[in-house]
Amino acid sequence: MVVSEKKFRAWEITGFILVSILGSLLHFLYDFSGKSPIAALFSPVNESTWEHLKLLFVPFLLYSIVEYLVWGKEEGCNFIAAKVFGLFWGLFAIVASFYTYVGIIGTNFLWADIMTFLIGVFTAFRFSEKWLKHPREGKGWCAASLVLLAAFIICFVLFTWKAPHIGLFLDPVTQTYGIA
């Protein structure tokens, strides 16, 4: 890794805090914006699990872009792959932990939902940290990560307005999908 361990650790801790705070604030952006279509691209438009994944996706991506511009360029494709696959595993951790605890208990609780979000943020940073400390060989990882990132962006935009009618996309409050 190009940056010192101390500097890297400071960036990751700062990132965890900023992504957690910004993600929490994003929860309210759509309503506060008067239900702006622009805000819908970045923040949840309903209470579905899918829409809440934006709480990690958007701030983690923004923070990763800043990291890349400040020190990640020297890591190149390895940095991009580390962050995108870290993001993938963070999103997966949110979905897996949410549905596991709700499946066991039978209902959800706000405090537990917040914990699943924080687990996702932690997982995203931890996975990308491990990747950066132990880089994968080959340019294929970079291409795969860019395809995955593009797929995420397309899905978040598309499914905000045209959500599939499956449980992941169902708003449990209004029983609707996407923007109602």
- The chain-level structural class is mainly alpha
Please report which band the strand proportion falls in: under 5%, 5-15%, 15-25%, 25-35%, 35-45% or over 45%: under 5%
Q: Kindly report how far apart the N and C termini lie.
A: 46 Å
Average pLDDT reading? 95
For the largest beta-sheet, the strand count, sense and barrel status come to:
none
Q: Rg to the nearest angstrom? A: 17 Å
Elements, N to C (H/E): HHHHHHHH
Number of domains: 1
Describe the structure in your own words:
By secondary structure, the protein is mainly α. The protein has one domain (5-169). Helices cover 71% and strands 0% of the residues. α5 runs antiparallel to α6 (77-105). The protein is globular and about 50 Å long.
Q: How would you summarize the topology of this molecule?
A:
Blueprint: H1 5-26, H2 29-32, H3 37-42, H4 49-52, H5 54-70, H6 77-105, H7 110-133, H8 140-161
Helix pairs in contact: 1-5, 1-7, 5-6, 6-7, 6-8
